[in-house]
Amino acid sequence: MDRSRLIRKADCEWELPRAGAMRVPGLIYADEALIDAMDDKVAEQVANVAALPGIVKASFAMPDAHWGYGFAIGGVAAFDEEGVVSAGGVGFDISCGVRTLTTGLTVRDVEPVKRELADLLYARIPAGVGSTGALRLSASETDAMLAGGARWAVARGYGKPEDLERIEERGVAKGADPSAVSDAAKQRQRDQMGTLGSGNHYLEVQRVTAIDDAAIAKAYGLERDAIVISIHCGSRGLGHQIGTEFLRSMTIAAKAAGIALPERELACAPIRSDVGQRYLGAMRAGINCALANRQILTHLARDAVREVLPEAKLELLYDVSHNTCKLEEHIVDGRRRELFVHRKGATRAFGPGHRDVPTAFRDAGQPVLIGGSMGTASYVLAGTDAGMDAAFGSACHGAGRSMSRSQALKRWNGRQVVDELAGRGILIRSPSQRGVAEEAPGAYKDVTEVVDAADRAGLARKVARLAPLICIKG
Predict the structure, then answer these.
(1) Residues facing 471 on adjacent strands
(2) What is the crossing angle of helices 274-308 and 114-124, to 10°?
């Protein structure tokens, strides 16, 4: 990115000053190396978002920001009720997120049975393009799932009621409207519940390799050499269909409202409009789909792990999404306001004391789960008071791609990646060698650099580093 356009405000904070149609400035959180590695398109998209009606305070980009459809991936923007809601500001994989479970196991427990565990998890966890699960939903059950989220799943025997306390929104997004979701979207999802899907989605068995904040790690139930399991996936075909359909209707709605769109994928609708309200209802239903999906996958993973390691405890640490728009209360210029906060490839990171943080670690702050790519580290962070002020309680969500999937395919083949990682003690199980090549670790930015920048910017505090032992890859 051309730094001449930016004003450095702090070690890891850069301002893109207002210019042209921008209503607010842009703020990019990154160190020098990450800024230099960002495409100029990120700054352009940050500026485009800053020009939308009703935007409050600034248009933000997280340290892992890269070009996306309309909004940069890693973008955060909040709008008042006179503003807009944007399908491009949420993303197509609605409520894609990360869920992490503690196990009560250590590396010494897992190593002797690692290959057996990898094979069983791969057999039990449906993964890959178009993957389907054993669960088949009727039309009425699909609507019940879209309204009930993880609560629906728990009520049907997938997991435990106490899981719900450790899920964002306590397992269900209120205001979901299944009637706003098309039959085409519902049809795509009826046999995809409890599946990982493809792309960068995974289930990993991970080892805690470092503790950065001992007190918070203890509150989260993490210690060095402990084993955790992380699941990264979203709303599958349903979310993508919702995004595709509303992108079209929002393009028309924006034009009718007199909103100039510098690029089509920035399509939006006034929050109070019929299209805006229907999108919010459909998007919340998409959130519930993702929460239910991860809840079912948790149930499948628990059964598989206990078959090999009966002593495993498998308690949910937390589940947090990174492709959402949520109505939240934030303090702006000393005044508490209700805002529609878009996070696209950005993780909610509420600080200590916030009422939406589970009681067990309210003093520590919300767990912020940062997924790595195959073969690289993942991280657990904690939300901070400073982050609440900096970017509406938001942080990064992962490493962010440094090259396209087509570029990755030209550089690696799947077998090469699998063999290389096996040599490092990481077992990969995937139905697609092409998918493995597309998600090669080298196709991503250095997640440690991204997390360090988020920590230095005060967006979230580093708590623990995780390294993969087994990866079930879509």
Answers:
(1) 204, 428
(2) 140
Q: Are 432 and 128 in contact (CB under 8 A)?
A: yes
Residue whose tokens read 């090669």: 440
Does the active-site annotation cover 397?
Answer: yes
pLDDT digits (tens, 9 = 90+) for 105-134: 999 999 999 999 999 999 999 887 878 888
Quote the CA–CA distance of 214 and 192 in Å, as a whole number: 39
CA 265 to chain centre: 20
**Alpha carbon distances (Å) from 329 to 52, 94, 349, 352, 392:** 20, 21, 14, 15, 9
Structural domain boundaries in the chain: 3-402+444-473
Residue 347 near residue 73, CB atoms below 8 Å: no
Which pair of tokens denotes residue 320? Answer: 């947090």
The answer to whether 30 and 12 have CB atoms below 8 angstroms apart is: yes
Q: What is the pLDDT of residues 369-421, one digit of tens each?
A: 999 988 899 999 999 999 999 999 999 999 878 888 899 999 999 999 999 99
Residue of 232, 299, 342, 397 marked active site: 397
CA distance 413 to 435: 9
The answer to whether the beta carbons of residues 460 and 454 sit under 8 Å apart is yes
Q: How many CA atoms lie within 13 A of 369 on its CB side?
A: 25
State how beta strands 202-211 and 226-233 pair. antiparallel
Q: Which runs of consecutive H residues, i.e. helices, occur in 163-273?
A: 183-189, 214-220, 236-256
- β-pair type (26-29, 59-66): parallel
- pTM of the predicted model over 0.90: yes
Helical pair 274-308 and 139-155, crossing angle rounded to 10 deg: 50
CATH number for domain 3-402+444-473, candidates 3.50.80.10, 3.40.190.10, 3.30.230.70, 3.90.1860.10: 3.90.1860.10
| Cα(432)–Cα(123) distance, integer angstroms | 14
